[in-house]
User: Fold this.
Amino acid sequence: MKYRFMEAHRGEHRVEKMARNLGVTRSGFYAWARQGKAPRREEDEHLGELIKGIQQEVKYRYGSPRMTRELCRGGRRVGHNRVARLMRERCLGARPRKAYRATTKSNHGHPVAENLLQRQFSVPAANRVWVSDITYIPTAEGWMYLCVVLDLYSRRVVGWSMGRSLGVELAVNALLMALLHRRPPRDLVLHSDRGVQYCAGVFRRHLREYRIRQSMSRKGDCWDNACAETFFASLKTELIRDRIFQTREQGRREIFEYIEVFYNRRRLHSYLGYLSPEEFERTTARKAA
Assistant:
């Protein structure tokens, strides 16, 4: 076990120092390493192929922590350091993140709501707090805009809409989809930024009709709606990256697949104990029953 520990941490600490601290000799470690090198190489090759297959399946969206969890879920007992090394050596890491740009237009004359959320992002049950935000999607035909509604309990996207403009209908359509899918109880809180779409009278009328309490971030403070912005950062890193969709229709298809097929049902979420949002809701519902 000591030699295995030294092998796993060779890139982080000197062999001489580890041998001294563990009470073994360098020569003994090197003899052990030579003896087990061939089988280890074969294991690494097999494991590397498994990692490559998973990355291709999830379109290179996993870093080493999620990859380790995915392998363990599949029955492979493997350490994070080894997975990270194999991903690094084989250039199988996740695609790098791009900077996020906000699209909020808060210079308007509409009234704004109080910040009820106050960065309390941990929620005890589903349909207690939803968050919403809007982002831009580049296409060769021009900009397309995406609005999402997430349930803070499971981080699941419960409503979304896409359109060519930043009009209020973008936010209304996402809200109506979420209401149709979830049918929340009264006193649900919906949190957003101060964008004109969320302050418009038609959007507020829908909130009043369904007894939803409105909450808004403080002016210029993106951290008040961090969970929604984190979702967009993941979307742009894991799906869009440096691409520009050729058409808006292509963008719609791929974003639909990302949200409904990958993110909600497959993507392992660190906040949820490396379960997907759907798995998390299903697991907690069983425990509650």
